[in-house]
Amino acid sequence: MSDTPPDRLSVDPSSPHHDAEMLQRGVGIRFKGEEKTNVEEYCVSEGWVRLALGNRVDRKGKALTVKLQGTVEPYFQND
Question: Where are the alpha helices (DSSP H) in 1-79?
């Protein structure tokens, strides 16, 4: 496996950017220098994250999210 997290990753199993092996390994996100634990999806090259809005869900049961722009730094937590 690679020593660097992927450029784009999602926790949603229905997303084409979902990678269960990477998520199992434990990917942490620093967004604008601050540790974030509610990240649903991120993209380093485009510089954005999708953050979950508390426990709110849409009518299909998926978490409501907000997309924020800024510096994204993914890292492996279990290394």
Answer: 20-25
pLDDT in tens, the chain (79 residues): 678 899 999 999 999 999 999 999 899 999 999 999 999 999 999 999 999 999 999 999 988 999 999 999 999 987 6
Tokens of 46: 């485009």
* Paired residues of 8 in beta bridges: 43
CA 17 to chain centre: 10
Locate 11 and state its tokens: 């926790």
**CA angle 20-34-78, nearest 5°?**
40
* Whole-number Å distance between alpha carbons of 53 and 57: 8
Single pTM value for the model: 0.89
Amino acid at 48: W
Number of H helices, E strands in the chain: 1, 7
